[in-house]
Amino acid sequence: MKIVHKIVIANISQVLLMAMIFFFAYQNLNLVLTKLRFVELADDLNASFLEMRLSEKNYFLYNEESALSEIATKLKDNMEAVEAVRPDIIRAIGAKNYDLLKLRSQTYMNVIEDAKNSPPGNRTLEATVREAGRNLREFSSDITHLERREVNRIISKSTNVLFYSFCAILLLAIGVSHLILFDIRKSLKKIEQVAYSISEGNFDNVEGDISGDELGSVMKAINTMSKELKNREEIITQSKKLESLGILTAGVAHELGNPLNNIAMVAQTYAEVYDSLSREDRLEYMKRVEEETDRIKEIVKNLLDFSRPKKPILKEVEINSVIKKTLKFVQNMLHLCCIDVKLVLQENLPHVCIDEPEIQEVFVNLITNAVHAMSPRCELSITTRIGENGEYVAIEVADQGKGIPAEVLPYIFDPFFSTKGVEGTGLGLSVSYSIIKNHNGRIQVRSEVGVGTTFTIELPVYKGKEGQDEWSQNHGN
């Protein structure tokens, strides 16, 4: 369900709940108002009944004949007033109580009429009149007190219901908002993790269930983007390899030249002295040709391994040998640019588990950048050492070049960022960073303008087959 639909449903639920509360409050308020109107009327009736009782006393004590007429008139007026608001009174006190009120009022009226038609001094009639008046007065007073209590009860109940309803609406709003925000934060957290992962060169797709809301659509788009970036990274990496391959070609040609010249010399000498050679000498000449041929095969094999696109293949190696092998590739470039190389390689270093061609590519990139930054007769220093905690092997490639300004130093590993202007592609360091990161290593740089730049690579020490299997699982090999 989409987030907008969840919000709409939550809002509709809250509106319906508030409408129910409003209806309940409105009904109770109307009932309270009705009862209050009856209480006002009852107060008037009680006052009128009290006056009637006083008129009774005046009649029986002082024989005022007009007192009975006053009682009859007031009683008639009260009965007409009660009849005028009959629906409200019934709603307030119920039909049964209303009928009792009318019955007692009519009874009182009847005995008053009897008293008017009878001579004064009738004790039986006096008692009947007093009893009917007292019953009417007490009934009216009881109903009034009862309705006052009922009004208080309804107001108290309504207050409690409104309070608890408000709390329910508040809790519902908080609960629904929390659930929606939880879903949003959960998806945003995934997006954040994927974004960081992509920024570090890991283009694996998001795993697990993807929601069907708007954020789920974003996750699908990120998966698609990640897949495309992974494809492009492979293309960029291969392009950079081909670029580096051009630089290596001169060095390889030089490396091939030596064994080819040796083969040519052996062949020429072999032809000249063939007749004078013994069988053992002839075999010795052929052995030398075979050795030089093997050298050529090894050079070509290394070149093909470096240039051929393939999945990473880890193997346990000694990093110093990898550095020496790489220097053979770039020896001709170093010679042509008149760059001296200083090797400070610590002996008996622990082995590392790496994809050798990829790490060679990193070394070639760093050495090439260093050569481009230096003037002739400058020195390139390559140092290896064990890390402080023994967990990694550190390789430092330091040049005496022009250095990198501090303001651009944080961006040198970004794709397409180059300090060489139009002459650079800006991909070498980015690809190198990705390769080292995929080896669970680190690459750092420090530089000072006019002094030089030092790149430090840290590769984890090989810890047996478990470490290799873990790396393979993390990188899909």
CATH C-level label of the largest domain? Alpha Beta
Helix content: 55-70%
> Could you give me the name of the CATH homologous superfamily of the largest domain?
Histidine kinase-like ATPase, C-terminal domain
Structural class by secondary-structure content: alpha+beta
What's the architecture of the largest domain in CATH terms?
2-Layer Sandwich
Largest sheet: 5 strands, mixed
Low-confidence stretches: 422-426
Q: Quaternary state, please?
A: single chain
- What is the H-and-E element order? HHHHHHHEHEEHEEHEEH
Spatial order of the strands in the main sheet?
2-4-5-7-6
Number of domains: 2
Rg calculated over all Cα atoms: 53 Å
Q: How many distinct helices?
A: 11
Q: What would the principal axes of the Cα set say about the shape? A: rod-shaped
Question: In a nutshell, what does this entry contain?
Answer:
With 477 residues, this protein is α+β, with helices and mostly antiparallel strands. Helix content is 70%, strand content 9%.
Description:
This protein has 477 residues and is α+β, with helices and mostly antiparallel strands. The chain folds into 2 domains: 3-182, A middle domain of Talin 1, CATH 1.20.1420; 230-474, 2-Layer Sandwich (Heat Shock Protein 90). It is 70% helix and 9% strand. The protein has helices spanning 3-62, 65-84, 86-93, 95-116, 123-199, 214-272, 279-307, 319-336, 356-373, 428-438, 465-474, and strands at residues 315-317, 340-345, 352-354, 379-386, 392-398, 442-448, 452-460. The strands form 2 sheets. A 5-stranded mixed β-sheet has the order 2-4-5-7-6, covered by helices on one side. The chain has a two-stranded antiparallel sheet with strand order 1-3. Helix 4 (95-116) packs antiparallel against helix 5. The longest helix is centred in the middle third of the chain and has 77 residues, at 123-199. The model is unreliable at 422-426 (pLDDT under 50).
